[in-house]
Amino acid sequence: MRVPIKPRFRRFAAGGLAVTIGATLAACSGTTGGGGAEAEFPSETVEIMVPAAAGGGWDSTARAMQQVMESEDIVTDSVEVFNVEGGGGATGLAQLQGDQGDPHKLMMTGLVMIGALEQADSPVSLTDTTPLAILTSEAEAFVVPADSQFQTIEDVVEAHEADPASVTFGGGSAGGSDHLVVGELLQAADGDPSQIKYVGYSGGGEAIAGILSGDVAVGVSGVSEFEGQIESGDMRLLAISTAETTDVAGEPAPTLQEAGYDVDFNNWRAIVAPPGLSEEQASSVVSTIDELHSSPGWDKALEQNGWTDFYRTGDEAGQFVEEETTRVGELFEELDL
In terms of CB atoms within 10 Å, which of 171, 207, 267, 293 comes out highest? Predict the structure, then answer.
């Protein structure tokens, strides 16, 4: 069942970003003037780039889209998913920009990329794409190996307060959502987020290996990326980042707020196309994604992966990306990352 959520936002002015993304997404949903008959889509193989290594949240989302689009005949041709690693998504984003005007070249993205690009002070930006839809939202999970000395999230915070160098956190790219939620936790605990010892991995598979091997003391990522290890007993779940709990491996998950830390943090994922699409092209691609979103197969994918349906297109999606982009920039200043 789809359960709508209401993430916490902080509103700031975002200047040209609101105009660029809002106008593009409005065009996608047909809320602006002009336009005409929708361009035929797809007319060839659809390629979905995952700008990270295999095994992570972007990868699993793209492959779920591939499976549903093909199995439910949403596309007439095949869907190809491929991975491009580097720079927290910056390498893939730069490659996408070279496909200007091609509606068959799509890319997964989300909060992780905004943070990673901010961390790297990257010259490329999500404003240099054609945003199509926000797809899902998910709680972040804090986990440890089963034999860890840490039994609760409070144990982790106390150890960090006593000696920041003694606790190594690990997750996705530096500056991404996993890094940011650690900063929010330590800020809520009146700690010093600038003292975070953090290891960024290029994909979910590498992060899981690093956690289980003891290279990092505490793993942080989307709940779905760790659920198998939690269910098998290889990892212990300490807390999730959202205010509302959810079942993880069949049990209600403890939350950071229940532990006394005022954090309500959601990760999200989206799909974008290269820059330079016409209104007709963008509208036609969004119509296909609408069909995906309304399919029984997508409902099943959401349930199986523990993803919350967070579908947005048009001005609503543009406003959301605007707020998130500005919020991340503000967080970097607040947390001194």
Answer: 171
pLDDT at 315: 65
- Is pLDDT of 211 > 50? yes
Of 179, 136, 172, 63, residue with least CA distance to 320: 136
pTM above 0.85, yes or no: no
Into which CATH architecture does domain 16-138+266-335 fall? 3-Layer(aba) Sandwich (3.40)
Region of residue 121 (phi > 0: left; psi between -120 and 50: alpha; otherwise: beta): left
Q: What is the CATH number of domain 139-252?
A: 3.40.190.10
Three-state SS at 5? coil
Question: Which one, of 316, 38, 261, lies nearest residue 142 by Cα?
Answer: 261
214: how many CB neighbours lie within 10 A of its CB? 12
CA 78, chain centre distance (Å):
25
pLDDT at position 39 is: 60
pLDDT of 28:
43
How far apart are alpha carbons 70 and 75 in whole angstroms? 6
Q: The tokens 């994909």 sit on which residue? A: 203
Token pair 């290594």: residue = 53
- Average pLDDT score over the chain: 85
Q: Is the pLDDT of residue 235 over 90?
A: yes
Q: How far is CA 125 from CA 42, 94, 301, in A?
A: 26, 9, 29
User: Given this model, what pLDDT does residue 34 score?
Assistant: 35
Please indicate whether the domains covering 16-138+266-335 and 139-252 agree at the CATH topology level.
Answer: yes
Q: Are 269 and 136 in contact (CB under 8 A)?
A: yes
Alpha helices in the chain (DSSP H): 16-29, 57-71, 90-97, 111-120, 153-162, 177-188, 204-213, 223-232, 279-293, 296-305, 314-335
Ordered by start, the domain boundaries in the chain are: 16-138+266-335, 139-252
pLDDT above 60 (res 36) = no
